[in-house]
Design a protein that fits this description.
ATP binding; magnesium; 5-formyltetrahydrofolate cyclo-ligase; FTHF_cligase; two-stranded antiparallel sheet; FTHF_cligase-like_sf; alpha/beta; single chain
């Protein structure tokens, strides 16, 4: 399937999920993450969930990161440049929804991309080779291309892998891992 077809399919599947399913799947994903060998690092980048789009509830992962005393980095989107600016999440960080309903930091301590060790990536679909399909704006491809090559890229998905994404192109940045409620994928 093409990215466009996969976006349509997985947006529909996601919107069919109940709040209880989203909560149960989000907890299962957080528990699966604990099995990965990725907890010795310092700087962890994570998105804040867009509830209206029925995204994974990342609060559970935030709690794990906080409990492990990690530096939590959250993004702010610039829709004019297509870039993410990343901020350290602190007790003083003010979170506000932008015009696209994305919860973001208003401002704070900016963290450069080359400091980030692990990135948890929102996605709609992924395949068995670690290719991913997001919303199609390219924010994460641009951001990941500015991170160190050894930065770990971990996709989070309610659904299992597709066999293949038909229209992957050279600028697409693949995943190192993807975590679903049932499976840990290692690419």
């Amino acid at each position: 399937m093409t990215k466009k077809e996969l976006r349509k399919k997985y947006k529909t599947l996601r919107f069919e999920l109940t709040e209880n399913q989203i909560d149960d799947f989000s907890i299962a994903i957080a528990n699966q993450l604990l099995k990965l060998p990725v907890w010795e690092y310092s700087y962890y980048h994570i998105f804040l969930s867009i509830e209206a789009l029925k995204e994974i509830n990342t609060d559970y992962i935030l709690n794990i990161l906080s409990g492990k005393d990690k530096n939590i980095i959250i993004p702010k989107s610039d829709f004019e440049t297509g870039e993410l600016t990343n901020y350290l999440l602190t007790d003083n960080t003010v979170i506000k929804k932008n015009n696209y309903n994305i919860p973001e930091p208003v401002d704070g301590i900016e963290i450069s991309n080359n400091k980030i060790d692990v990135v948890f990536i929102p996605l709609l679909a992924f395949d068995k080779s670690g290719n991913r399909v997001g919303y199609g704006k390219g924010f994460y491809d641009k951001f990941l291309s500015q991170c160190r090559p050894e930065t770990l890229k971990i996709g989070l998905s309610f659904f299992e892998a597709e066999d293949e994404i038909g229209d992957v192109f050279q600028g697409d940045i693949g995943l190192d891992y993807c975590v679903t409620p049932k499976t840990l994928y290692n690419f």
